[in-house]
Each structure stands twice: as C-alpha cells, then as structure tokens.
Amino acid sequence: MSAPSREFDVEAIRADFPILSRMLDPDTPMIYLDGGATSQRPRQVLDAEVAYLTHDHAAVKRGAHRMAGAATDAYEDARERVADFLGAPSPDEVVFTKSATEALNLIAHSLGIGDGSTPERLRVREGDEILVTEMEHHANLVPWQELARRTGATVRWIPMAEDFTLDDSELGSLVTERTKVIAFTHQSNVLGTVNPVERLVEAARSVGALTVLDAAQSAPHMPVDVSTLGVDLVALSGHKMLGPTGIGVLWGRYELLEQMPPFLTGGSMIEIVHMDHSTYAEPPARFEAGTPPISQAVGLAAACDYLDALGMEAVAAHEQALTQQALTGLAGIDGVRIIGPAASPQRTGAVSFDVAGRHPHDVGQVLDSLGLQVRVGHHCAWPLHRRFGLHGTTRASFSVHTTAAEVDALVAGVAHTVDFFGSFS
Amino acid sequence: MSTHLSALYTELVIEHDKRPLHAGLREPFGAEVHHVNPTCGDEITLRLQLSADGAERIEDVSYDAVGCAMSRAAASIMADLLIGRTVTEVEPVRAHFEEAMGSRGRVEGDEDLIGDGIALLGAAKFPARVKCVLMPWKAYQAALVETRALGA
Lengths: 425, 152
Prior knowledge:
By secondary structure, chain A is an alpha/beta fold. Chain A is built from 14 helices and 17 strands.
C-alpha cells in the first residue's frame, strides 16, 4: 500500500506542519533547522495517532475482544507499511523498538549472548573484531564498545580523511578473518558525508562479517531500500523522519533474526514459559518484549505515507539543493569553515560549520535570537570532533518543509553572528 | 538584536572571555579536578591551593577552560572572586551566585557580593546556559572537597 503521490510544493507542505507558524517573539518567526535532532510532524502524523487513540486503542496481541483485534491490526498494518517503505521483502523483518539507539543496542547485545546453538556468525567472542568508523554517532559506537568489553572482542575503526570522508585506504588490513561486524552510518549526522555502502558491504562479505547500517540520518532524506543496499541489519529512528518519538525500527534479514537470541525478555516475546525456563517466539515478536509503542507505530506508518507521497527521490533533490545553497552561502562568509565534504553533491540533510574563534553555543545563541533553531555542540559524535580538533560545531539541518528563504536567513544570520562578536573590541 | 542577547553578551562578559583573569594551570596546588559538560563538550581543569595555616585562605585558583563565552567568563570572574579570600568568606558569595543563577531572573543579584558575577546573570533566563556558568563553581567545590580530603 503506497501513498498517492503529490507535487513537491514546499508552501503546501508547510501548511501541513502546524508548528511552523509559531512565533518566538512577536516579530520573530520560528525557523526550524534542527530536523537532524528531531523532526517536526505533519498533521497527517498527528491525526493518525489521534485517530488510532480515539477509535482503536487497546493492548495488542492479547485479549479476545474486538478492540484488541483493532489495535493489533493497526499495529501490524504499521509494520507492513514500514516494511514497504524500506523495500523489505517481509514485514516479519521489521522489529519495532523504542529508538534507533535501542535497535543498535539490541543487535550489539544479541551478538554477545549466543550459546552453542547460535551460528558462529552471530556470536562475537574473545579475539573477534568489530569495525566501526571514526564518524559514528555515539549510538553506533558505545554499544559496540560495551559488546567488546563484555566479550573480550576489540573495536577497530576506519579513520577519517582530511576531506571529511572515510579514509578507506587501509580497509584491506582493517577487515580480516577476525572481523565479525562492520557497523557504520549511512550518512553522517554531522558531516553529511554519505558512506560507500557497497564497498563496505563487499569488504564485509569477503570475510563473512555482518553489516549493520545506522540509517537514522539517511532514511528521512533519501531513498533507503534494504533490498538493494546489501546490508544485513539496519537501524532507524521514527522521530527523525517526521514520525513520533518513542519508536525506532530494526530491520534485519529474516534468516539472521530467526537465529539471533533476544535482547529484552518478558511478555509478548515468549513461546512457552515454565517456572525454570522458557522458549521464545519467532521474529519479530521475539524482539518486542512488553507492550510496544502502538500509537507511535501508527504515527510512523503515517510518516512513511507522507514521505512516500512526496517521493524520497524528490525529497532528496529538494534537500540536496538546500544543502548546496547553504554550503555556497556559508563558505562565502569570512571566518566560516564548513565541516563536511563541500564538494559532495549527494549529501543531504545537514550542514555543520565552525565560526572562527566562537564557541558553537555562542553562535547558536545569536542565531536563536534571530529565530534560527540550530544544533550546537558535538552532536553525539565526540570522537569525530576531536579528530578535527574541534570542541563542537554549529549544525543546520533541513527537512521537507525547509525553504530557500530559510536557508538565506541562515546565511544572513551567520554573517550577523560574525559581525556581532566582531563588534566587541 | 534582541534585548535578551545584549543582556547575555555584555562588554564585561566578552572582556572576561577574551582576556580571562588568572587563566592557566599553575603550581603549587592542593588538588586538581576536571569537569565536563557532556551535552556540549565544555571542559574545565581547575587547581586549588589553600593556605597551610588552617585558615583555608585561597592562595590560588588556576584553570584551563574550554567552552562558550559564558563559561569562560564565569571561570575568570570566579577565580578573581576567590583568590585571596578564605573559604568561609567566599561561601556566601558562591551561595548567592548559585541562587541567582537558578532563579530564572527572579533574584536580581547583589553586586556587592558577587562583583562582576552580576554580568553573568543574563544567562539565568536561559536554562541551557545556567550549567555553563555554574560549571567552574562546581569544579571549585569539588576541588575544595578533594583538597580537604588530601590534607586531612
């Protein structure tokens, strides 16, 4: 079931986002450039959640009453919708989690707790290696550090090149027979760098390693089709793709999911429970212990509808154009340094920059006074910033509702910030 | 420019940010602490030296602060308020400053007590910035506890 397509008309899109009419001061409209942290939600998503909660809500997968059936249908329809959005062959490959972070923790935990019945491929043990990249969000780094700590495995990483892309010149020596997992982000939440998925998948396959893709910063901005990406497991976040908070997605190849031990245990994920042991349900239920985020799943499905109606190719083209406009405008301001690959035409979503001599909090404060809502700090990618000798950056991130005029306002705002701090002797 | 912004970035704050007082790490010191604000990555390393005569006179506060203008200015102003006074004398200053910073602007601040610290109170209306301004003071308190523990 895919949504009817519509024209990519930014003004019409903006009318769907009630929050965009908010004023911060009587004469200061709110300019939301922080979709990379969390996106705003169109009324279609809000309406879908309200409709579910006011018509169909009950606990899913339990109870014989009709409401339980209605709620279960809504939840499972949402799963189908997300599977369709991702190009997944089956909705059984879609696991709802509370966040992309939980999805990544689920994988990292599961890979560390297998026993003799678990295939070696899905067991990370002492002496094994987990390969990540130096640009990872903490959510795709710390869980692997913890897995390594628990198992005696080692975390290694693909370093950054000076041009803000991965330096994969040593990939051949980093990927060895010991490599069990290669976990990497699809698009950096700081740099906007789009990583070479195909090359990394190929390297992983050559040694039988699993590939884990953090798609939290790509799924909202470009087509993400798991049937062609070639990766084994994917994590994404509902609230970064116009959906609700409190819901994330783990997609995994079914033949892997069905052999992976559960992460969280308890109700809903069991097959048979005895006093001294239990057996577990098949995926995806095995990975969904407890009552799931039902209305959030319904909201996420509506977000998928919304994005599909616009068309992810069109969304990507829109945001690529805004990104290039911002890169060109910001690069023209004295003292502003772009932190990311300026020449990359495929990057979408976010532009990070350094304003010489100014701490990003100070930059963000001045931009906020102009209504510009940007992110400041290390954006949960501290090692990446350290690598480039930065304590933080200022990041503007774009969404389907961002206009060229807003990007102009950003560029003018950054120029004003430079002037503002330059005005003190 | 909004009035909030000019209340935040006063000439005095920018002056302390650009030319911080007592900055740099010096010997001797009784204790050294390192504090981090994990949300923004701001860091301060602070050393505290108390007099050996039991009066707990603050002989030196030296520090290396990486952060926004507000946090760097806060460290500079704090060091200047602390050095040369006893821990007991300084306590009402610290307490009043912390109260005013946490008041969302309701407590005006007594300039006789907190000196240049009055220039930082503009940040009290910005909850996200209160932490920046209080971080040096938290570091001082931790260094005090540690100095006393090491001296005991």
